[in-house]
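Per your request, structure below.
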């Protein structure tokens, strides 16, 4: 009887402690993610200094070498025709690609040769890149409110990883783009989405918006946009 009482007490204590432990673990992942995003922001500041105040392009393909350049990773091939993945445009060939893995993202990469997942880059207004309506990246002087212009965040959509952040509504940079629900943010940190801004700070946001030019019904559960309009994405 005494043993049963002890076991019951232990079970009760465990039931009380497990939610607290889970909450602490979640907060730890959120803090680690915020630190990762700050590191991405710092890399962007270094890039701006090195590249005449221009932001890195979101992506482009070198048709001569077949190498695919993206802000996060560069994918090429060696002499044995094996895939070689190196840090991308943002890192100027250096840096730690593992910083681009959100500790709370449970999904897989969209492509086998893009192993790191979890973060996306403001393609609609900052990065632009090959195939966009405006291909040339923005420059720092164009960002009127850097503390309220998102640059990196918890990328996620219905199919998993998402590394190109999209604003919910058409703009000169990507007026012809279709599929904005594929460039949403994941609200996976206890209902919050971590976001890095152009001034270098990062913060969790809890307001999720689903309405967009391609229809709110296309936005996956647990994902969405950072603002109802383009205000947290645009430059002015």
């Amino acid at each position: 009887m005494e043993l049963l009482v002890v076991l019951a007490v232990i079970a009760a204590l465990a039931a009380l402690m497990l939610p607290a432990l889970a909450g602490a673990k979640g907060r730890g992942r959120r803090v680690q993610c915020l630190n990762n995003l700050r590191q991405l922001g710092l890399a962007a500041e270094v890039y701006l200094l090195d590249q005449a105040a221009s932001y890195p392009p979101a992506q482009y393909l070198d048709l001569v070498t077949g190498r695919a350049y993206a802000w996060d990773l560069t994918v090429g091939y060696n002499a044995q025709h094996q895939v070689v993945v190196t840090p991308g445009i943002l890192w100027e060939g250096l840096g730690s690609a593992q910083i681009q893995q959100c500790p709370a993202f449970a999904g897989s990469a969209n492509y086998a040769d893009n192993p790191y997942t979890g973060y996306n880059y403001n393609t609609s207004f900052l990065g632009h890149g090959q195939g966009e309506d405006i291909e040339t990246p923005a420059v720092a002087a164009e960002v009127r409110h850097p503390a309220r212009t998102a640059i990196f965040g918890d990328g996620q959509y219905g199919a998993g990883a998402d590394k190109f952040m999209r604003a919910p509504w058409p703009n000169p940079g990507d007026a012809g783009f279709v599929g904005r629900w594929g460039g949403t943010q994941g609200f996976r940190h206890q209902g919050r989405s971590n976001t890095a801004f152009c001034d270098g700070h990062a913060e969790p946001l809890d307001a999720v918006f689903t309405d967009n030019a391609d229809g709110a019904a296309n936005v996956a559960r647990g994902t969405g946009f950072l603002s109802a309009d383009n205000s947290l994405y645009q430059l002015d």
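The helical segments are 2-50, 123-127.

Regards,
D.
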